[in-house]
Amino acid sequence: MSDADDGVRLQKVLAGAGVGSRRACEVLIAAGRVEVDGEIVRTMGLRVDPAAAVIKVDGMRITTAEAGLVHLALNKPRGVVSTMSDPEGRPSLADYLGGRKERLFHVGRLDADTEGLILLTNDGELAHRLAHPSYEVFKTYVAEVPGPVAPAVGRQLRDGITLDDGPVHVTSFRVVDRVGARVMVEVVLHEGRKHIVRRLLKEVGHPVHRLVRTHVGTVALGDLRPGKSRPLNREEIAGLYRDVGL
Length: 246
What we know:
Elements: E1 8-9, H1 10-16, H2 22-30, E2 34-36, E3 39-40, E4 47-48, E5 55-57, E6 60-62, E7 71-76, E8 105-106, E9 115-121, H3 124-131, E10 139-146, H4 151-159, E11 161-163, E12 166-168, E13 172-179, E14 182-189, H5 196-203, E15 210-216, E16 219-220, E17 229-231, H6 234-243
Parallel strand pairs: 9-15
Antiparallel strand pairs: 1-4, 2-3, 2-5, 5-6, 7-9, 7-17, 8-9, 10-14, 10-15, 11-12, 13-14, 15-16
């Protein structure tokens, strides 16, 4: 929170973040639904520093333009390395971000042959927590594998597989489609070890032909085209912060 003569009025910050009109934001404040730096606020004239205050509405964190925070979803194409630059000259994430000037951190990695959703942010602590297995943020993948896939495969993966670098189990596994001799399966897990999905499926006899990450937490790839990015919406951002306790 800020001193009385400093900062920006809270209802103006909320309105600027897209929560609602200033009048609607005043109603939220009066109802005790707004929290600033861990304290419920009911004072209309309160001024805050939009770049530093942690503001939540109904327990969901909001971010403001003044805070300078960037949160993006990118559909990484196949053949692109998950770095911001590559000394070998291979296509990298920065090639698809339109020359943005912020220092962006990518959330985890996708190997060059894996496509799909990768998150980028200039909030280093958020990126660290989202990638760290102790916070158990789930990632969802769709893999194309040779079929048929027996029901026992799902049970085996949920019970746990021991790989060279230790045991791992998936949260869920299901067959989502069949095309001739190939099957599309969905795998949900919170592991982030290198090539983990490919290694798991190979271990149970179904080597991956194509792999796409479709979700990180509640953020979905949706219909975002390969090579394109989009800013996360307010609900997606709040969900990520909530998932990692920020």
